[in-house]
Recover the amino acids of this structure.
């Protein structure tokens, strides 16, 4: 807000303020055509150069801000050549120069973005007076530009954050908690949001995926459960907007009307843009006949040029994941889109307090908390353990960037009371040796006298009643509704999990002796 007051007003007055990012499409209209190069691909690399510069603490745009890789028109990753880097820098500098100018841009082609005027403020070397200390929250997601502003102040500085909740590296965020010199460090591992069950799942993600073992997340004394219990409204957290849309379709397609709330709101989710993309996909004569008016200014540009397939090619060309997801939704649901959009809009409530169910992505849910959280199936797919209970050779934690595990960790730690786990999350816990097993007295298991078959899949052995103890798998309901009823394990299956400790369950059953 400090930046907002300082610079926003002057640019807003001149009509030169852009509240969103400068799109690749708009950049393409500002650069020159060069023979043998795709205009959109070049615009993408220039856009990335500007974004990298805005996020940095540097004074000038240079080759370090240019991307290393780009995707060519065939979708193949190629190194950006030295010559192309020089061209990127030259054209990015020209755009930045025109963005900064308050006058002279009659057509308002060079509107300054939020990141742009933050950069201007950083370059002005601001000094905040009248403060004893600056408290920076979410410090793990600060950009170097923000860090430069903070560190240049003469008052005390307190940085607070969780490095395992860093999910914005794609925006140029750096983990300030590790990079900034400090006088004191305090580790806050006690959570007051949830109890030990949810804390255990979060700590296990850090253990298995990030090798964090010396600072264990600890929960409070609150009641909680991770095996399928639920209370009140459910919040479904997904990794992608595609899954959010599909959740909305399922929830609003029920016989009984249900009120949903999309975290962050429908406008931010882009439901109207999905509808406009569907309109674009219709033949021109059908659009005219049905009076289908495209309202989104960006989508409308394609109506006047290369149509739906041109838009799709553009999204693939510049690797625009958000736009690709929306196009994929339109291609999947086709002519159902108008009715689905109508249902979602009519079922959506702006206040989450009156909703029956909340849905959204982890990015939108960051910083929030909910009583019951359901983890969707679209996070990293962790395969089931093989027969010898070792990891499959075609899967490795290291195959995925750290942000992916951070996303899962953030999703899990939004829950206050109940966590409905996906199968992949259960498989991940199994990598740490957690199989939801407990030991019971054999006499309790066999008190009705009936023979008990092992509950493990593909095992038909029966329990050995001569043992004093027996291992039982606890029941677990997954986020997709499937249920593992659990049950008792035979000696062989127990040995697969407990190894050399198995004999501890084999002491003879105690017999009551008359006194």
């Amino acid at each position: 807000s400090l930046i907002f007051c300082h610079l926003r007003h002057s640019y807003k007055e001149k009509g030169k303020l852009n509240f969103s990012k400068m799109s690749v499409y708009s950049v393409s209209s500002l650069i020159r055509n060069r023979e043998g190069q795709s205009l959109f691909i070049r615009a993408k690399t220039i856009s990335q150069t500007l974004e990298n510069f805005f996020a940095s603490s540097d004074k000038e745009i240079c080759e370090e801000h240019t991307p290393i890789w780009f995707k060519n028109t065939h979708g193949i990753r190629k190194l950006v050549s030295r010559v192309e880097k020089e061209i990127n820098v030259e054209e990015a500098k020209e755009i930045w120069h025109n963005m900064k100018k308050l006058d002279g841009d009659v057509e308002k082609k060079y509107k300054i973005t939020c990141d742009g005027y933050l950069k201007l403020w950083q370059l002005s070397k601001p000094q905040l007076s009248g403060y004893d200390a600056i408290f920076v929250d979410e410090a793990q997601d600060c950009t170097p530009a923000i860090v430069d502003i903070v560190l240049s102040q003469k008052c005390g500085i307190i940085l607070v954050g969780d490095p395992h909740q860093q999910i914005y590296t794609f925006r140029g965020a750096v983990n300030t908690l590790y990079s900034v010199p400090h006088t004191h460090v305090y580790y806050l591992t006690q959570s007051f949001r949830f109890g030990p069950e949810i804390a255990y799942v979060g700590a296990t993600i850090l253990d298995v995926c990030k090798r964090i073992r010396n600072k264990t997340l600890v929960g409070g004394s609150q009641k909680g459960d991770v095996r399928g219990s639920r209370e009140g409204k459910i919040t479904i957290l997904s990794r992608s907007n595609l899954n959010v849309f599909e959740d909305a379709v399922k929830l609003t397609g029920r016989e009984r009307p249900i009120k949903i709330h999309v975290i962050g709101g429908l406008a931010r989710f882009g439901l109207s843009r999905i509808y406009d993309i569907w309109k674009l996909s219709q033949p021109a004569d059908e659009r005219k006949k049905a009076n289908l008016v495209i309202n989104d200014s960006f989508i409308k540009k394609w109506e006047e040029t290369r149509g739906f397939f041109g838009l799709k090619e553009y999204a693939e060309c510049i690797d625009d994941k958000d736009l690709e997801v929306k196009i994929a939704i339109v291609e999947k649901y086709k002519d159902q889109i108008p009715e689905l959009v109508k249902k979602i809009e009519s079922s959506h409530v702006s206040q989450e307090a009156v909703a029956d169910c909340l849905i959204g992505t982890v990015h939108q849910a960051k910083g929030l908390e909910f009583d019951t959280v359901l983890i969707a199936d679209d996070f990293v797919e962790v395969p089931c353990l093989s027969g010898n209970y070792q990891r499959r050779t075609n899967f490795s934690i290291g195959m995925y960037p750290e942000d992916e595990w951070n996303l899962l960790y953030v999703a899990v730690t939004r829950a206050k009371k109940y966590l409905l786990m996906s199968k992949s999350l259960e498989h991940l816990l199994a990598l740490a040796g957690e199989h939801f097993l407990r030991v019971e007295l054999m006499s309790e298991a066999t008190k009705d006298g009936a023979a008990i078959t092992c509950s493990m899949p593909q095992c038909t052995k029966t329990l050995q009643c001569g043992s004093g103890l027996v291992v039982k798998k606890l029941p677990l309901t997954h986020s997709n509704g499937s249920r593992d009823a659990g049950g008792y394990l035979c000696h062989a299956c127990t040995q697969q999990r407990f190894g050399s400790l198995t004999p501890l369950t084999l002491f003879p059953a105690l017999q009551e002796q008359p006194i």
